[in-house]
Please model this.
Amino acid sequence: MNKYYKCVKNTFRMLVILCIAFVISLIVEKFLGASTLIPAIMALAIFMISRITDGFLYGIIASVLSVLLLNFAFMLPYFAFNFSISENIISAVIMLVITIMTSTLTTQLKWQEKIRTESEKEKMRGNLLRAVSHDLRTPLTAIYGSGSTIMENYKQLSEEQLLQLAKGICTDSQWLMRMVENILSITRIDNEGVKITKTSTVLEELIDSVLIRFKKTYPDQKIIVDIPQEFISIPMDAVLIEQVLVNILENAMQHATGMTEIKLSVYVMGDKAVFEIKDNGCGIEKERLKGLFKDYFEIKEGPIDNQKKSMGIGLAVCASIIKAHNGVITASNRKEGGCCFRFALDMERNEDE
Amino acid sequence: MNSYKILMIEDEENICNFMKMTFETNGYQILFANTGKNGMTMFSSHHPNLLILDLGLPDVDGLEIIKEIRQKSEVPIIVLSARTDEKDKVEALDLGANDYVTKPFGTSELLARVRATLRNCRIQEGGVGTREKFCLYDMVIQYEARKVSIAGKEVRLTQTEYNIVEVLALHAGKVLTYAEIVKKVWGYSDSGSVKKLQVNMANIRKKFGEKPGEYHYILNELGVGYRMNDDKW
Model:
C-alpha cells in the first residue's frame, strides 16, 4: 500500500514538473523566439525531478520523455517526430547522458545522507552500550559478591548477616530490572526506525498502572493526582508512556532533595493532552537543565560518575519515547522551587464510531 | 501440605532451581521439563494439576504448546512472559492460558497466582450455579438478585455494567482479555466494542468511588484486559 502510494506520488511530481517545463518552453518559443533556451529549461526540469523523486527510474523516464518532447515540439519539423536528422539524435543522446548523470549523482547524495544518519545512530547506540555496561557493573559486583559470600561462608554467617546479604541482592536486582526495562524501551523504539504501535489507552487506567508500579518501589511517597473527570482516551504505546511517567517520578524521588510533594496532572489543551509532573524539591542546576535529556548518549569515554549518571538513562529514554510519539519533553524550574517536567500527546481526532 | 503436582516447562536451569525450592517449601510437588517436547511427554505421563509455561522455549513456540494441550485437556496453564510483549500475553490468554506472570517476577507473586488459578478451577468445576454471592473487601455481589453493594450500600449499575462486573467476578483472580469480556457481555464484537467496554469500566469505577492508583476491586492489565482482585491470596 505504502509502496503504491509512493509510486503515485513520484509519478505525479514528475509529470507536474515536466508539464510546467513544457509550458514555459512554449511561452519562451512563442514570445522570445529563443529556441536555444529550451534544452536548458528541460535539463533544469530533469535535474529537479531527479532531486525530489526516489531512485533512478523517474529521472530516466523524465529524460526520455523530455527528449521526445523536444524532438516533437521544438525541433524541425514542428509537432512531428523526426529521428532522421543527425542533429536531433545527437542532442537527444546528450540530454539522456546529462539526465542519467544527474540522477545518479542525486541518488548517491541521498544515499550518503542515509548512511550518515545511520552511522550517527550507530554511534549513539555505542555510547549507550558503553554507559549502560558501566552502570550495570556496580550492582552486578554487589550481587556476585553477596552471593559468593553466602556460598563460601554460610556456616560462619549469622542469620542476620545472611538476611542482610540476601536483602542487598534483592535491592540490587530490582535496580537492574529497572535499568533493563529502560534499555528494552529504547530497543523497542529503535527496532524499526521510530515506528511505534499506538493503541487507544484510557487515561485513568494509565495513571493507575503508573501509580501502582511506583508504589511498589516507594510505598510511602504520596502523589497528588489531578486529571480531568471525563473519559479520555489517548493513542499511545502504553508500556512506553508508563515508562516515561515512572522514570520522571523516580527521578524526582532520587534527585529532588528536600522534596515533600509530587503532583501529577493531566489537562487537555486543544487537541493535545498535556502531562505535567511537578515537585517542590531543590530544582535542577541551570547548566544541567540544557543537556538533561541527552547527556547520557553523549558521554565521552573515560570514567563516569556512577551515582550522577545512573538516572541519566531514565530521562534520555523519556526523551526518545516522547520523540517517537511526535512530541517534545521539557524540564524547567518552578518559581516556587522544585522542577516541572512537561510533555504533550496528540489526542484521538474525534469520537470514532 | 497439599498434593498438587505442578509441571514447569522452562529452559533456564537457574530459574528452575529456585522454583524447586520455593514450591517444595510451600508443599507442592514440582516437575521440570527443559524443552517443549519433553514437556509434552511429561504432561501426558504425569498428569499435573497445573502447568507453568515459559513462552520463550528453545525448541517450540510456547503458544503452540498451549494450543496442543487445550485440544485434549483443561488443565490450568500459567504463562511466563516478558513485560514488553502484550501481544503474546493476549494471544496466550485467548488460546486458553489461564493467567500470565511477567518476568522478572517475585516468588510470592507467582505463588499467589498459582493458588488463585487452582482455586478458580475448583470453583469452575463446581459449576457457576453453586455460588450465590461474591465477596471482596466490603463489596458483595449477589448473583441471583443481580445486585452489587459496597459497605452495605447498593451501587446502582446499568445492566451492561452489572454484566461486566459479574463476568469478572465469576473468574476472580484471572485476567480476562478485552475481547473475552466483550464476547461474554455483548455476544458479538466490532471495532468500537473495546472502547465501549473501557467507557463502561470508567463508569463502574466512578460508581465504586475509586480513584486512579487506588483501584482495588477491578485491576488493570494495561493493553491486555481486566482482572477482578482476589482477596484471598
Observations:
- Chain B has two domains: 5-126, 130-228.
- The first strand of chain B starts at residue 5 and ends at 9.
- The interface with chain A takes residues 83-84, 86, 104, 191-192, 194-195, 198-199, 201-202, 205, 211-213, 215, 220, 222-223 of chain B (CB under 8 Å).
- The CA atoms of residues 50 and 75 of chain B lie 6 Å apart.
